[in-house]
Every structure is written in C-alpha cells, then in structure tokens.
Amino acid sequence: QIDGTTLQTLTTRMGGEHDYQPDWSPTGQRIAFLTTRFGSSSLAVLDVETGEINQARDTSSLEDPSWSPDGERLIAWDEGFFDGILEGRLYEIDPASDGPPTVLLRDPGGFRDPSWIENGRSVLYRTLRSSVNRLFVQNLAQMKPREIGPLMARIHPALSPDGSTLAFVGRSGSKGIWLAEFGPVPSSVRPTTWATVKRSRE
Question: I want to staple 118 with a disulfide (CB 3.0 to 4.6 A). Which of 100, 122, 143, 175 is the partner?
Fold first, then answer.
C-alpha cells in the first residue's frame, strides 16, 4: 500500500544475489528488473500473479529497463568497447522472443534514464556531452536526435502522462527539480518552448 503499512515480497534471493531497477509494465501484470540470480547481471521479467521469473536472452550488463507503452517490448542500454571504440548502445528487447536484443541507437555518451514517449515512436534519454548530462529526444524513424532543455546539467527526466510537461533535476547555481512545458508533440519541440522553464518550490 502507498502508506507503507503492507509490504509484499515479490522476489526471494540466495546470499549475495541482488534484484534491482524494477519497472512496471503498463498493464501492471509484469515487472522487468535486473538481477544477478543467473550469474552476472541480466534482465528478467516477473509475472506478478504467478511469481514466475524468466531471464531475457543476452542481456548481461544492460541497465535502466523501461517498458514500451503497449507492454510488449523493453528498452535498456549498456556501454562498452565495440571494435575498439567506447560506445553506448540502446537496445530493444522482446521478452517473449528467443532472439537477442536489437540495437536501436548508438551514442558515445550512453542512454541513461531511457523511456519511450510519443506512443512508442520516440525515446527520451540523457547522455554525456563534454562531461555534462544533457537530454535528448530521438524519433526512431529519424537519424538525428533533438536536444531538449535549457543550458544546464539535466538528469532524471520524467514526462507527465499527458506529454505536456517535463520534470527533471537541473543545476543552475544549486541542484533542484525543474519543470518545463514540453509541447503537445514531443518530437516537434522548439527551443523557444523553454522560455517558460521554472524551478519548482524546494
């Protein structure tokens, strides 16, 4: 319960095992999470009703799982050296498939805090540019990402359910939570939209 008076254990672990980074599916029937119960860290999906846990194939080292709006797919990312180059990769995972994850995007700065927006047509994420965290929207049908937000370090983006307002942690002198109008269609955001950026009350 929200008031914390009732707790329910959903997963049990042996000594030294860890379950972390959970994400509810939109239907509330499944929870994706990272776990070390299968050896190295990997992605797993819990059926809330039955308690059954299934490991997703080839997901070792992935981070920040996030469900698609239809509850059928997940995105997650990792970072490593590929062909001798340090690179972040965003993957699409079908937990019902035996196939490996599909690479959606590549970026040297990574894909932290990824989430599907625009009904699954775009992805919102933060990445490092010149050692500064910045927010981007990538329409998956297009090649070039669009940077969003004011000129400050920005982390932990969260879009409102109606897609009109973005909340994020920003730093302008001191760290705080900021709100900004996001526009009715995230992929068409213009820089002038951010003239209404304001800091929430602390």
Answer: 122
Closest CA to 55 of 71, 82, 34, 85: 34
> Would you give the DSSP letter of residue 200?
P
Among the listed residues 34, 107, 23, the one whose alpha carbon sits nearest the alpha carbon of residue 68: 23
Count how many Cα atoms sit within 13 Å of the Cα of residue 53 in the half-sphere of its side chain.
16
Place of tokens 């932990």: 156
What distance lies between CA 148 and its chain's CA centroid?
16
- What's the residue count for the chain? 202
Please, is 5 exposed, middle or buried when counting C-beta atoms within 10 Å of its C-beta (0-12, 13-18, 19+)? exposed
Q: Rounded to whole angstroms, how far apart are CA atoms 124 and 116? A: 6
**12: which residues sit within 8 A by CB, 6+ positions away?**
none
Q: Please tell me the least confidently modeled range out of 21-30, 139-148, 170-179.
A: 170-179
Burial 9-20 (b: 16+ CB within 10 A, else e): eeeeeeeeeebe
- Residue 146 above 90 pLDDT? no
C-alpha distances out from residue 79 to 20, 112, 151, Å = 18, 10, 25
